[in-house]
Amino acid sequence: MKTVLITGASSGIGKEMAYVYAENNYNLILVARRKENLEAIKSDIEHKHKLNVQSFDIDLSQIDSAELLYKKVSEKGIKVDVLINNAGFGINGKFKEIDMEWEESMLILNMVTLTKLTKLFVQDMLKAGNGNIINIA
Asked: β-pairing, 27-32 with 3-7?
């Protein structure tokens, strides 16, 4: 059975993708900051579809979060067949008034973590001779 890893899986597009992949018999790795939401989705999918669902409550806006996630997945011996980089956010407002720390978190999540996750997981996909990566923008 194939496995999909979905970031930003606690709501919105990520949550909906989790249900779509579950309906297509993929095991799931769900990643987001909101542990309660992840656990509710995990429980619901496991109950409805009898699949293996892992959840990791990781803040992907932290600089080393991609490496942490990759390590956790690798330690469990899970082969990721599909990586969906869905986590992200934007900021509105006047440039001079936007909080620099908040902006930096956005840049790390939207660009750095996405790139690192892609680089880390693509190596395993290339070794396996297959895999897919979807970047939601």
From this structure: parallel
- Residue owning tokens 């997945």: 73
Q: Is 61 left (phi over 0), alpha (psi -120 to 50) or beta?
A: alpha
DSSP 118: H
Strand partners, 84: 6, 134
Question: What are the boundaries of each domain within the chain?
Answer: 3-135
Domain 3-135 in CATH 3.30.200.20: no
Global pTM?
A: 0.94
SS3 per-residue string spanning 46-106: HHHHCCCEEEEECCCCCCCHHHHHHHHHHHCCCCCCEEEECCCCCCCCCHHHCCHHHHHHH
24-83 confidence digits (pLDDT tens): 999 999 999 999 999 999 999 999 999 999 999 999 999 999 999 999 999 999 999 999
Joined tokens for residue 7:
């970031």
Tokens for 90, please give them.
Answer: 């934007």
Closest CA to 6 of 102, 83, 95: 83
